[in-house]
Amino acid sequence: MKKTLLILFSAGLFSLTVASCGQAPKPMDAAGLTAKADSVFNSKKQGLIDAAGNACMTAGAAKTKAVCDSICNAN
Length: 75
Description:
Blueprint: H1 2-21, H2 30-74
């Protein structure tokens, strides 16, 4: 019984896959392409800004501590 259901499910999935391959992709016009690019950029922009800010703060804190330690050791 399980094999029969598995075979029927596999055949159905295969037929859907073959049917969907026959459809041509929808071309995007220039405005749609620009809108999609802007959407992707805006969704990733804030994450990249935050990552760069964290990296800058971490590096700045490490350099400040190193300079502070060297001044303290010199005195």
